[in-house]
Write a structure and sequence with these properties.
The chain is an all-alpha fold. Helix content is about 90%, strand content about 0%. The longest helix is centred in the middle third of the chain and has 54 residues. The protein is elongated, with a radius of gyration of 21 Å.
């Protein structure tokens, strides 16, 4: 029961890790490996420093809290890239209703 707060904090840290993992995947798809690597190493060092300082400050719970804060900062910087990657290209939006109508008319003709 004594480890419950630490485990709960570490469980919550899974959400910013998901953002981080998807950010890496987007950069791999886009082929921007070098930019992602530089930013990834910088945020890794920040996460490591926060974890060490948190552990020195308040033990295991301090480690978990500091790591969570570092991951949240990382996720805040990575989220705009993910949001941009989810938006459809502007050219895909133009004429999309005409394509849908053409697809429906082709289906009706079968």
């Amino acid at each position: 029961a004594a480890a419950y707060p630490t485990v709960a904090i570490l469980a919550v840290s899974a959400f910013p890790v998901l953002v981080k993992d998807h950010w890496i995947a987007v950069h791999r798809i886009q082929g921007s490996h070098s930019r992602a690597a530089v930013f990834g190493v910088a945020t890794l060092l920040m996460e490591l420093a926060a974890a060490v300082l948190g552990a020195a400050w308040a033990g295991l719970e301090g480690f978990a809290v500091a790591r969570l804060v570092a991951l949240l900062v990382q996720a805040a910087f990575m989220a705009p890239t993910l949001l941009r990657s989810m938006a459809p290209p502007a050219t895909a939006m133009r004429g999309s209703s005409a394509r849908v109508e053409a697809d429906l008319s082709d289906r009706d003709g079968l």
